[in-house]
Design goal:
The protein is of the alpha+beta class. It has 5 helices and 10 strands. The strands form 4 sheets. A 3-stranded antiparallel beta sheet has the order 3-7-6, with helices on one face.
Length: about 180
C-alpha cells in the first residue's frame, strides 16, 4: 500500500482512470465521492485547513503512475465538498478552499467537550492557548486554523456557552466558557 508520509493512500489512488474525470455519470459520482473522502481524511490527518487550487497539493498527483488531476478535476472535487458544507471557497475566483473536516457546529461541540474533559468550565483562556496550549496537544484543536476556531467560538457565544473578549491584539483575545 502506497503512503504519503504516515498517511495510507487508498487503492484507487494507484488506478490511473481516477485521475481523469469519468464521462459516465455513475462512475463519476463514485469517483467524486472517493476523492471527497480522501481529501477530508488526508487534511484531517495532516491538519491541513487550506487547499490552493493552483498550488502543489500532495494528493493531486501520483508520481508512481505519473498522473495528476486536471484543474477542472481539482475544482470539481473541492466544489463538491463546498456543496456539502465540508469546505468553503475563500475567494471569489475559487483559488483557495477552506477545508472543514469538521463542520463549524461540530467544531463548537468538540470545543465544549474539550472544555468539560479538561475541567475548564467557567475559566478564561486565550484563543492562542486553545490552538497551542498544553491541554490542546494531541487533540483536534492543536494547530486549528484561527478562522475556523473563531467561527466555532462565535457560534458558542451565540448559544450562550462562551463569551469572547477582545484584547489589544489578536494574540490576547480571550474566551470565557459558560458550560
Amino acid at each position: 500500500m502506497q503512503k504519503l508520509g504516515d498517511f495510507k493512500l487508498p487503492q484507487f489512488f494507484n488506478y490511473p482512470p481516477y485521475f481523469t474525470l469519468q464521462p459516465i455519470r455513475e462512475t463519476r459520482e463514485k469517483q467524486v465521492q472517493l476523492w471527497k473522502e480522501l481529501i477530508l481524511e488526508y487534511c484531517r490527518s495532516q491538519k491541513i485547513f487550506i487547499v490552493g487550487l493552483e498550488e502543489e497539493f500532495p494528493l493531486f498527483s501520483n508520481q508512481v503512475i505519473e498522473r495528476s488531476l486536471s484543474h477542472e478535476s481539482r475544482e470539481l472535487f473541492l466544489s463538491a465538498l463546498v456543496s456539502e458544507g465540508r469546505a468553503e471557497w475563500m475567494d471569489k475566483s475559487h483559488k483557495k478552499c477552506l477545508i472543514l473536516w469538521l463542520r463549524i457546529p461540530d467544531w463548537a461541540d468538540y470545543i465544549i467537550n474539550f472544555v468539560k474533559q479538561n475541567g475548564l468550565e467557567d475559566s478564561v483562556m486565550t484563543v492562542e492557548d486553545i490552538r497551542t496550549g498544553i491541554e490542546s496537544r494531541g487533540t483536534e484543536l492543536a494547530g486549528i486554523d484561527r478562522v475556523v476556531l473563531m467561527r466555532a467560538l462565535k457560534l458558542l457565544e451565540q448559544k450562550g456557552k462562551a463569551a469572547i473578549f477582545k484584547g489589544s491584539s489578536t494574540d490576547d483575545e480571550g474566551v470565557k466558557f459558560n458550560v
